[in-house]
Amino acid sequence: MLAVRDRQDRAAFGALFDYYAPRVKGMLMRKGCGHGQADEIVQDVMLTVWRKAAMFDPQRAQVSAWIFQIARNRHIDVIRKESRPMPEELAQEPDAEPDASQVLGMEQEAKQLKEALARLKPAQREMIEAAYLGELSHRELSEKTGLPLGTIKSRIRLGLDKLRHELKGMRAE
Q1: Is the N or C terminus of the chain more exposed, i.e. has fewer CB atoms within 10 Å?
Q2: How many helices (H) and strands (E) does the chain have?
Q3: Burial (Cβ within 10 Å: 0-12, 13-18, ≥19) of residue 68
Q4: pTM of the shown model
């Protein structure tokens, strides 16, 4: 690992990959991942090991602990992304045309949501739009923006709380 960290040694990385990839995959499969999903996570983990090798500190952790922690975090990200609630399908018959009151109600709700989003702080709005409309995980947002993961989570949580407060009466009407 030190050769990878200090000299970007490809042969050393190949040896790391050959040793840890099957072990990481085994751990992921024991946690319930299928073969395909485990392979994808392993590839992502090992790519992270290569890219973030400079962050490895042997005084803080063993190589195995560092790699398995990356794998554990990536697995949690995948689970969170998969369990993100999807919007419910509209309960309509396939050929039924919505009546004017339904169309008007949906347009009003969309307008209220747009206005509430516009009132959010720009940083909160951007994170919410990227997470929910762009379907990015918190970690992907962190990597894309360079912001700490905690900052991403805080902005989304605070923005959603404000939206919830502003739109709480919308469904009751």
Answers
A1: C
A2: 8, 0
A3: middle
A4: 0.50
Domain range summary for the chain, segments of one domain joined by +: 2-82, 113-167
Rounded to whole angstroms, how far apart are CA atoms 150 and 81? 17
pLDDT at 94 (0 to 100): 55
Handedness of CA 142, 148, 150, 156 (dihedral sign): negative
Helix (H, G, I), strand (E, B) or coil at 75: helix
Contact 132, 146 (CB under 8 A): no
Which CATH code, of 1.10.1740.10, 3.30.1640.10, 3.50.30.10, 3.40.640.10, is assigned to 2-82?
A: 1.10.1740.10
pLDDT digits (tens, 9 = 90+) for 30-75: 998 889 999 999 999 999 999 999 999 999 999 999 999 999 999 9
Q: Whole-angstrom Cα distance, residue 54 to residue 44?
A: 17
CB 128 within 8 A of CB 156: yes
Nearest to 166 by CA among 122, 127, 114, 104: 114
Per-residue confidence (pLDDT) for residue 93, from 0 to 100 = 56
